[in-house]
Write a structure and sequence with these properties.
Elements (H helix, E strand, L loop, with lengths): L1 H25 L11 E5 L4 H12 L3 E6 L2 H14 L4 E5 L5 H14 L5 E4 L14 H29 L2 E6 L12 H23 L5 E8 L23 H13 L4 E4 L2 H11 L2 H11 L27
Parallel strand pairs: 1-2, 1-4, 2-3, 4-5, 5-6, 6-7
Helix pairs in contact: 2-3, 2-7, 4-5, 5-6
Length: about 325
């Protein structure tokens, strides 16, 4: 009896959601106002993080910018203030270091206030075949690409829960949805980041903190520097993404409180095929899309300051 009742209830909820989605397609959903919200962006020194900072500044948000690249971060702060007369604060933070994250987080709370929109954007890519990846780089990849998300959320989520107000944004990757040759550590960390964000979203709903929103972003390659040398076999099917367009898409997703954003939409279809095809056909699909060879000419970046700037990397 419970099974029948639960099934009918579930069907009703699905129908309601479908109708709401249809209505939102016809009548644009009201976007939330972020003026006065305290927005923290990790990896803010350049690229995507810098673009997001400038876009949030134009909407009147208070910016908290984190990056290990102090000079680039200060420049982002200057550009944001130039865009609009807003409050912006730049902090040097090594997001591979848990204690430093907690220390700088405490400093932010004292000097700026409680963060209400947290964008975990900082990341690193090694870009080597599995057996060629140094052990310390595997550890660094996980420290920055996923464990930093745990520590920033632990630092800032309690105040969001207390107010039942906030937004958690995870910049994952299409490589957090499908494995790619030459990106074993990166893919694993991005799968983990996505899983963490999704689990946290369900936990918040379980405890009725539904005013705390979650957005998970999964983009393909961006035309930026940290994935320099990577290629896409068929640009018409899977084009390299323009950072400006991706930044705007992320901003819109946050304002519209979308949960999942996969860029481009073609990847969603590819994921569907992955689930229904045989192993041999999946390999053939990977070969067709160039998944085996996209990292063959990878160059990337090597400096310590740039390695944390997710905004300088191309997502996959």
């Amino acid at each position: 009896m419970d099974l029948i009742l639960d099934t009918v209830t579930f069907g009703g909820k699905i129908l309601r959601c479908l109708l709401e989605s249809l209505i939102y397609k016809i009548i644009s959903k009201k976007k939330k106002n972020v003026a006065g919200e305290i927005v923290l962006i990790t990896g803010a020194a350049s690229g995507l993080g810098r673009l997001m900072a400038i876009k949030f500044a134009s909407l009147g948000a208070i910016l908290v910018l984190w990056d290990i690249n102090e000079e680039g971060n200060i420049e982002t702060c200057r550009l944001a203030k130039e865009k609009r007369d807003v409050k912006a604060f730049a902090y040097k933070c090594d997001c591979t270091n848990r204690q430093e994250i907690y220390r700088v987080a405490d400093q932010v709370k004292k000097e700026v206030g409680d963060v209400t929109i947290l964008i975990n954007n900082a990341g690193v890519v090694t870009g080597k075949m599995f057996l060629d990846i140094p052990d310390d780089m595997v550890e660094r990849t996980f420290l920055l690409n996923v464990l930093s998300h745990f520590w920033t959320c632990k630092a800032f989520l309690p105040s969001m829960i207390k107010a039942n107000h906030g937004h958690l944004v995870c910049i994952s990757s299409a490589a957090g949805l499908v494995g790619v040759s030459g990106l074993s550590d990166y893919c694993a960390s991005k799968f983990a980041a996505l899983g963490f964000a999704e689990s946290l979203f369900l936990e918040l709903n379980l405890v009725k903190k539904t005013k705390i929103k979650t957005t998970i972003i999964c983009p393909y390659f961006l035309k930026t520097g940290m994935f320099e040398g990577c290629t896409t076999k068929y640009p018409l099917l899977l084009p390299l993404l323009d950072p400006e367009d991706v930044a705007q898409t992320i901003l819109n997703a946050i304002l519209e409180e979308q949960l999942y954003v996969i860029i481009p939409k073609m990847i969603t279809f590819t994921l569907f095929l992955k689930q229904i095809l045989s192993t041999e056909m999946t390999i053939a699909l990977a070969e067709y899309l160039g998944v085996h060879t996209c990292m063959a000419s990878f160059k990337g970046r090597n400096t310590a300051d740039e390695v944390q700037t997710e905004t300088e990397r191309e997502h996959l």
